[in-house]
Amino acid sequence: MKIEYANRIHQIPPYLFAEIDKKKAEMKKKGVDLIDLGVGDPDLPTPKPIVEQLKRASEDPRNHRYPSYEGMIEFRRAVAQWFEKRFHLTFDPETEILTLIGSKEGIAHLPLAFVNPGDYVLVPTPGYPVYRVSTLFAGGTPYFLPLLKENGFLPDLSEIPEEVAKKAKLLFLNYPNNPTAAVAERAFFEEVVAFAHRYQIVVCHDAAYSELAFEGYRPLSFFEVEGARELGIEFHSLSKTFNMTGWRIGFAVGNARIIGGLGRVKTNIDSGLFQAIQEAGLLALTQFDTPIPETIQIYQRRRDLMVEGLKGIGLEVDAPKATFYLWVQIPEEYTSTQFATLLLEKAGIVVTPGNGFGEAGEGYIRIALTVGEPRLKEAIERLKKIKF
Ligand SMILES: *Cc1c(COP(=O)(O)O)cnc(C)c1O
Fold it and tell me: Does residue 387 surpass a pLDDT of 90?
């Protein structure tokens, strides 16, 4: 029989990295020593005490059974405690906090609770691809908000047409931002709250990089702004903070009705997160000061080394205040894909073309600082030999 995919599968935007992936595989096969600055996945290990806690917790038969849907109350209490310590904000672990199987899982399911077919969802571009795809899966229509350098990579809410704003149900934001590495300040969040309140829009703030900030800078929680609790949900992740991308643990914090909506969806799809991982996560949130100074120091040295190197060869890049990404403007005569291909073919360096994060990412490449200093130095040496 002919097996047909549902329309929503055909709606998924084309995979823009296919060509580069192919080339990457070819070069690997040829034995080229590739330096991979493409993936946003920490190369550093999870801190030992967290791993030890997982070992212990996995031996406990009580953890071998189905976990609770909304997450262990002990883990959610640890989240509340961490939020209080880090942002001086109090949330009720019973109704305002939800454990997630990684924050991507929660972000992907959120539109199912709030978006009806035909509704608009406001989606930043360039941006994390999940916002757009989860909107499409829920039958919504993404309305793209360009993040432009002249606006500090913040969306210009005044540019959103009235009729779109009126039909919008959800607004996605992500600061510190992937891929631009931009940060948001209080004035912007205040503007967001006023806008969302006027048009009755749920705000979903993805704060995956809130604990990866340099030189004492502390990114804000969206909830530090008055009125945000009435209309917001914020996604946090242990992935980048504690080098735990493989573990799949995150959480959402926010308005009880919004948390409840996401919980309703999840109850019908997954059966919670392995309790031993939650116990390890609990230890992470209670035993470490975040941002973790040792981790920040490592990324900061890599950032400085790479920014200086890139500037030295004439590329335009600002040293970011947060995240482990560099968002690098490329010479005008290239497209993002052409430039990424050039770096791969001529220098064996893998970077992500900016247009892979949406059309507004054209003209940029994203460099992830997820390899050690010797390799970054080697990358700079190789770049010096290319003419562009
Ligand atoms: C890495 C990342 C996440 C975190 O995903 P997890 O599912 O928690 O691992 C979320 N949002 C953005 C923008 C990211 O880059």
Answer: no
Determine whether domain 7-44+292-384 maps to CATH 3.20.20.70.
Answer: no
The CA distances from residue 3 to 6, 12, 136, in Å, are 10, 18, 22
Q: Which of 46, 178, 234, 366 to mutate to test the pocket of ligand 1 (most atoms within 8 A of CB)?
A: 178
Give me the residue spans of the domains in the chain.
Answer: 7-44+292-384, 48-287
pLDDT tens for 251-279 read 999 999 999 999 999 999 999 999 999 99
> Residue 349: how many CB atoms within 10 A of its CB?
24
| Ligand 1 probe mutation, 237, 249, 277, most atoms within 8 A of CB | 237
Q: Residue type at 291?
A: P
Q: How many whole angstroms from 245 Cα to the centroid of ligand 1?
A: 8
Q: pLDDT per residue over 342-384, tens digit each?
A: 999 999 999 999 999 999 999 999 999 999 999 999 999 999 9
Q: Does domain 48-287 have CATH number 3.30.450.40?
A: no
Exposure string over 145-168, b if 16+ CB within 10 A, otherwise e: bbbeeeeebbbebeebeeeebebb
